[in-house]
Amino acid sequence: MILIVGLGNPGSRYKNTRHNVGFMVVDKLASSEHVSPDERQTEAQWRAEQKFQAQVYKSQDVIYVKPLTYMNLSGITVKAICDFYKIKTDNLIAIHDDIDLPLGKIRISSGGASGGHHGVQSLINHLNTDQFVRFRIGIGTGTGSGSTSAPQEQNVKRFRVVKYVLSKFKSAEVAQMKTVIDRACMAVRIYLEDGLEKAMNEFN
After folding, report:
1. Which pTM value belongs to this model?
2. Hey, where are the domains in the chain?
3. CATH superfamily, with its number, for domain 2-203
4. What is the pLDDT of residue 142?
5. Is 14 labelled a binding residue?
6. Which residues are annotated as catalytic?
7. Is 72 known as a binding-site position?
8. Which positions of the chain have pLDDT values less than 50?
């Protein structure tokens, strides 16, 4: 069983924000697998699983998850699901935004530090490992994790970053992001069918 987690924040307030691009990708992935006798029902029917604090959609071989814990506590949900279904972190994919990547770029990697992403750091903390695959979707201006010396400058920068990632995509960016989400879904499918190296070679 493969676990694919889209990182984001629940609720209408955060829908279609930059920080929720992980949710957008897993929504698209799940809907592409969804088959309904009612042709009007084109979207996957997610189930709220209170024991996991998540929305879950299960296909034959894949569990898609959107944690409802808010971004910074995503690891609570992922650890609970991994334990319940006995899923090894080798079979975990986390899909999330990356402010250090230009808008629309995709980067696939396995293991390593969180890069300052609090959702990824929560997964690392709760799973006690960084050995899982990440699909990073660029949302940024390239000013996310650069260091500044003065505490006041750091606070100002932190505020700007938070404001940016919680903002919605501009109208001029929406079409581009739809294309990027489609490409990210294609990258995930190639990873599932042909492995990490093939996906990295095609999309990195």
Report:
1. 0.90
2. 2-203
3. Peptidyl-tRNA hydrolase (3.40.50.1470)
4. 46
5. yes
6. 19
7. yes
8. 35-40, 142
